[in-house]
Amino acid sequence: MSNVIVLGAGMVGSAMAIDMAKKHEVTLTDLSQDVLDRVKQRCDNLSIQLLDATDKNKLQSTIKKFNLVINAVPGFLGFETLRAIIEAGMNVIDIAFFPENSLELDALAKEHNVTAIVDCGVAPGMDNVILGYYNEIMKLTNFECLVGGLPKVKKWPFCYKAPFSPIDVIEEYTRPARYVENGKEIVREPLTDCEYVEFDKVGTLESFNSDGLRSIIYTMPHISNMKEKTLRYPGHVEYVRVLKESGFFDEEKIEVDGKLISPLDFTSKILFNEWKLEETEEEITVLRVTLKGENAAGQKEEVVYSMHDEYNPGTGTSSMARTTGYTATAAANLFLDGLFSEKGVFPPELVGKYKVCFDYFLSYLEDRDIHYVKSSRLI
Questions:
Q1: Contact 208/316 with Cβ under 8 angstroms?
Q2: pLDDT in tens, 20-75
Q3: Per the CB 3.0–4.6 Å rule, which of 132, 279, 289, 325 could disulfide with 352?
Q4: pTM of the predicted model as reported, rounded to 2 decimal places
Q5: Is the residue at 133 inside a domain?
Q6: For the chain, how many structural domains are there in total?
Q7: Same-domain status, 93 and 45
Q8: Domain range for residue 82?
């Protein structure tokens, strides 16, 4: 049994803390006592502690008492928090999904003899794990990931609920989307190249470009074609593009009745209520990873992994928290069990490349009723 500290008691952070508490001593920290108290009511054998992750000295002195840190602070705090954890010489599993490139901290992690496994969600996360493993056993030419979190009940006009802050979702809609085509990195506007795709149990969904490749642009440069696209119910993209093209996502302040206001802040406030996912509201997570290349026998093969997960009413845990958080707790337990101990910063594709780690992820998630179903065919 290890002593683990989880930074951030949001939807995913709390799910991870509760899951880790099955096997370990766990302390969950947050800025809000109310949030911590609510999680404590769901899991009595958790310890809770108020902590401001931006107070670097306090953060570093606190985490040094533990065997492992799980970083689940909001994205805008993530990179500097990860840096502080590494400087403290602490091993860490990171799920903050910050916009900066985590590989910039690799030399620092090696210097401090730290193992940092980053981007441990569903996507980025499990799609990277799958890619990492198949990159070892096939000569890959194509990688595509389609992924989305969706409400069970469609409410017009957006037919969408956000399991995290609307401003983070809006960033998906404004950050230029990078993908790789014929070996070249291409940058496109997000919300483009819309396609309709069929999924079992859900029906028709709409896919569009988003900036989800992250680390694999740098770790898998030999794969000629790589793309990640976000999934929503049909119609969502058109309404969001209307807002975007009309200036509702602009950050530059405008004057309204003598007051300066940012259109983005205003839009986020409006959409917070419209997109807020209630604690017991049913939602689903859908993912499809498609890999193409040459197998060990020299044949051209297509391998597809599909995942469909739903809100768990028994534990009151959202699908997004389950599929995201339990990937991270799989990485945490895998590390604590001694299956991965290399030093440096490792996105999931550099962990999943080992069969023992790949199998561990799939088995751990299956034990929690999250199933990645494989199909393949020669092409």
A1: no
A2: 999 999 999 999 999 999 999 999 999 999 999 999 999 999 999 999 999 999 88
A3: 132
A4: 0.95
A5: yes
A6: 2
A7: yes
A8: 3-121+320-370
